[in-house]
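It is worth pausing here to work through a concrete case rather than discussing structure prediction in the abstract. The textbook approach is simple: state the sequence, then state the predicted structure, then interpret. We follow exactly that order.
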Amino acid sequence: MKASRRSTDSPETVDPQRARHLSLETRQILTEDGVAAVLVNDHESPLAWLARRKGRDGRAMISPHQFIAGEKLRADFTRGNLAPRMTANWEAPGGRPRGSGHSPGEMTDVMVTSRQRVGQAMEACGPEFSGVLMDVCCFLRGLEDVERERGWPARSAKIVLQLGLDRLARHYGFAAEARGQGGKVRTWLAEDVAFES
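Step two, the predicted structure:
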């Protein structure tokens, strides 16, 4: 993943008054249409905070493949419109969302496909990790909040999240980068067995 750089175009895309209170960065993300440059607020995502933060060993708390997997899950969650609505929907029924190039029918297909991908990812991660992945990646909850709500010991959510992100990365096809991914499974007799015909 490319190192982020400070955004120079934030005043044109974000209100200057609001931009002073945000940590805006330009990031390269992989979309279905290819690589796209997007402006993100790093303070919004707990994953971005973990990716920037260094542990005692000097390495980032989550690796690039874990960050990408978590952001991919969050993107599908957002496209699937799975977040609960906090305000009223004032758009006209059947109207086009502003700025989208999709017709209402296409938008429904995108939403359905995204929801299916979220479901498949959660199924692949299993019940042990799906809850913490949803809380941190999708609902943007902090690790301390997750620990407090679940009654976990301090700093345990980070370990569970790292394991969940590794499993999520393997589901998305980042198996070569995921920790704990060794070679192919071999039997203990693999080198000694000779078959005669």
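Step three, interpretation. The two ends are 51 Å apart (CA to CA). Helices lie at 10-13, 16-19, 46-52, 64-79, 104-138, 143-150, 156-171.
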